[in-house]
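Entry 14: structure prediction run for FAM3C protein. Input pasted below.
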Amino acid sequence: CFLIGAAKLVVVIAIFLLTFYVISQVFEIKMDANLGHIFARSALDAAARSTKPPRYKCGISKACPEKHFAFKMSSGAANVVGPKICVEDNVLMSGVKNNVGRGINVALVNGKTGELLDTKFFDMWGGDVAPLIEFLKSIQDGTIVLMATYDDGATKLNEEARKLIAELGSTSITNLGFRDNWVFCGGKGIKTKSPFEQHIKNNKDTNKYEGWPEVVEMEGCIPQKQD
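Run finished. Output tokens:
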């Protein structure tokens, strides 16, 4: 009886061990399959990220070097869509922000830190040029100045206003006419003419919109002011 009982115990233990082994093998296979699936998905996700083009500040086409501020801006579209000014991935002026208007739109940025100092727009069709002149005279040295037209930015401009804007580095301001589209980035105290300027004349034969030329866009990297 003892031998029969011992034999049964051995059989039970053997069955238990065999069952445990089979279960553990199945479990490990499933775990391996799940881990394989996870790693495969991770590899695919990594591949997808590597093929996706990188996004640079303000959506510009390439990264700016060190000690430069990325910017992108566009003029208004006819009298329907306002201009947009972005610096260092911060939208400073736009229709969505509800801080743009007919005429010349201006954003002032600290030349050392890239921080926004002020935004204003001046109606050059139904307004007065005097507030624009006063504003331009108040700009401090080392300030980055970004300007964009909307609807009409030239009718009320006079020689004094144009001269003050030219001193910021603009070359096109002397020729800016009725309903021209214009974007400009310069600075107070700049020693040379700015390379950041786009200007399209209002011409009924070439206008994209009835009575207005196409939108002008511009992007680039502004050198940080050094002490």
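Notes: The chain has two domains: 1-48, 57-223. Will compare against the previous run tomorrow.
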